[in-house]
Design goal:
Helix 1 (23-41) crosses helix 2 (56-63). This protein is 22% helix and 25% strand. It is an alpha/beta fold. Strands 4-3-2-5-6-7 form a 6-stranded mixed beta sheet, with helices on both faces. Strands 1-9-8 form a 3-stranded antiparallel beta sheet, with helices on one face. Strand 2, helix 2 (56-63) and strand 3 (71-77) form a beta-alpha-beta unit. It is globular and about 55 Å long. The protein has helices at residues 23-41, 56-63, 84-87, 116-127, and strands at residues 17-21, 47-52, 71-77, 92-94, 104-112, 132-140, 153-157, 163-164, 180-183. The chain binds inosinic acid and magnesium ion (MG).
């Protein structure tokens, strides 16, 4: 039994979070997306490419809802917070470990916002000779789009709010929420967290 008097502060009930999409809603939608992808890709052994870090959580649940032969890879690209965001230039921080020639690629992303990151990534993969390149995104913040990006499989369209949870972060925080929430005052930045100085 606990003899410690230390208070555990709940991250999931943080007062700045407003629930947008519940755990149940996420699970149900992923099940639907998984069956749809399984039907569309039967016999084609698709390669799912997760975009680190945010999409890991979505990818790991999604792939268990796709009951066909498939494989996975990860890429990391620069996005929010970098100076490249407005220029549309995107940097690949971690590239694929396999060739994608003649493969059916499904890029798995947490959220499409301006579309700058994805329009670059999709074009980049196409230029490597993939047989096909499709996109599955959990969230679509469509009001903010600057570059047209076709989302072949979409979880949920959402309004223009900064959201966290289920992989999505604010300054690396809140990825562990099992649901998706609106972060009410993202300007209050790190909210007291000693980010970047873990020691
Ligand atoms: P885009 O190039 O503007 O479409 O940016 C996409 C990336 O920005 C996503 O993969 C996220 O990493 C990040 N992002 C965009 N909107 C949000 C948000 O509301 N919460 C957390 N991250 C976001
Ligand atoms: Mg991302």
């Amino acid at each position: 039994m606990a003899t410690s008097t230390a208070q555990i502060q709940s991250e999931f009930n943080h007062p700045d979070l407003k629930l947008l999409i519940s755990e149940d809603q996420i699970r149900d939608r992923i099940r639907e997306l998984g069956s749809q992808i399984a039907r569309d890709y039967a016999g084609r052994n698709p390669l799912l490419i997760g975009v680190l870090k945010g999409a890991c959580f979505f990818l790991s649940d999604l792939l268990r809802a796709i009951d066909i032969q498939l494989s996975i890879e990860f890429m990391a690209i620069s996005s929010y917070g970098s100076s490249t965001r407005t220029s549309g230039e995107v940097r690949i921080l971690k590239d694929l470990a396999v060739a994608v020639e003649n493969r059916h690629i499904i890029v798995v992303e947490d959220i499409v916002d301006t579309g700058l990151t994805l329009s670059y990534l999709l074009a980049n993969l196409e230029s490597r000779g993939a047989a096909s390149v499709k996109l599955v995104a959990l969230l679509d913040k469509f009001e903010r789009r600057e570059r047209e990006v076709e989302i072949d499989y979409l979880g949920f369209p959402i309004p223009d709010h900064f959201v966290v949870g289920y992989g999505l972060d604010h300054a690396e925080r809140f990825r562990n929420l099992p649901f998706i929430a609106i972060l009410m005052n993202p300007e209050a930045a790190q909210m007291g967290l000693p980010i970047g100085n873990p020691s």
